[in-house]
Automatic annotation (TrEMBL):
Coiled coil: none annotated. This is Fe-S cluster assembly ATP-binding protein. Transmembrane segments: none annotated. Keywords: ATP-binding, Nucleotide-binding. PANTHER family: ABC TRANSPORTER I FAMILY MEMBER 6, CHLOROPLASTIC. InterPro entries: AAA+_ATPase, ABC_transporter-like_ATP-bd, ABC_transporter-like_CS, FeS-cluster_ATPase_SufC, P-loop_NTPase. One of its GO terms (molecular function) is ATP binding. The lineage of its organism: Bacteria, Pseudomonadati, Pseudomonadota, Alphaproteobacteria, Rhodospirillales. The keyword Zinc-finger does not apply. Gene3D superfamilies: P-loop containing nucleotide triphosphate hydrolases. Residues 4-248 form the ABC transporter domain. Belongs to the ABC transporter superfamily. Ycf16 family. It holds the Pfam family ABC_tran.
């Protein structure tokens, strides 16, 4: 059974059609990359999977392990195992990063019928994961994303993903604004989470990220739908030739 299945998904924003028949099947343990030019609907797709408000779905469905997500609230989708790494992570003034992470872990544990994590157990867990991902202790004490650099925000998000261990993670242009060192840290964190029962959708413009997170499947997204699918070599072709062949065909 597919972990994620998107069937003929159509969606609009303020009456304007953005997604125009997206079909996508992602099996457990696979990493799919979604590449395409700006303004084609890639981020719209990621936001709709996560349950963000502001989009009108006019046709189609999204299934997680055969169960439709469309009637589920965003928090329920998260508890079911959906994780979205934002292109522009939001700031949460007044809430320490460690407090936020502990609350997220406990919400997931409560949903699974488990007791809340012990304070010492949490401290040991978060410090070990933070060290692996290059997240400094002072970042854990600071309000969520407040004053963080672009690279710090992305590292903090990958730390959250590592602690939440989602079943399906979407990385929406997580390479945006990262230098090579930060990119490698983020990629190492993602690669460490690859497993037979966890899948990823990596959304990016550039092949650079896919040199570090090597996908199983690459899709070209243009005009609100997937217009071509191939292996990792397709990303190299797109890097060399660009998207002109597809933007004209998808119009």
């Amino acid at each position: 059974m597919a972990l994620i299945e998107i069937r003929n998904l159509h969606a609009s924003v303020d009456g304007k059609d953005i997604l125009k028949g997206v079909d996508l099947v992602i099996e457990p343990g696979k990493v799919h990359a979604l590449m395409g030019p700006n303004g084609t609907g890639k981020s719209t797709l990621s936001n709709i999977i996560a349950g963000r408000d502001g989009y009108t779905i006019t046709d189609g469905d999204i299934l997680l392990n055969g169960q439709s997500l469309l009637e589920m609230e965003p928090q329920d989708r998260a508890l079911a195992g959906i994780f979205l790494s934002f292109q522009y992570p939001v700031e949460i003034p007044g809430v320490a990063t460690s407090t936020f992470l502990k609350a997220a872990i406990n919400a997931r544990r409560r949903a699974a019928g488990e007791g809340e994590i012990d304070a010492m157990e949490f401290l040991k867990l978060v410090k070990a994961k933070a060290k692996e991902l290059g997240v400094r202790d002072d970042m854990l004490k600071r309000p969520v994303n407040v004053g963080f650099s672009g690279g710090e925000k992305k590292r903090a998000e990958v730390l959250q993903m590592a602690l939440m261990t989602p079943r399906f993670a979407i990385l929406d242009e997580t390479d945006s604004g990262l230098d090579i060192d930060a990119l490698k840290v983020v990629a190492d964190g993602v690669n460490a989470l690859r497993s037979p029962d966890r899948s990823f959708l990596v959304i990016t413009h550039y092949q650079r990220l896919l040199s570090y997170i090597v996908p199983d499947v690459v899709h070209v997204f243009a005009g609100g739908r997937i217009v071509r699918t191939g292996g990792p070599e397709l990303a190299e072709e797109l890097e060399a030739k660009g998207y002109a062949d597809y933007t004209g065909a998808a119009a």
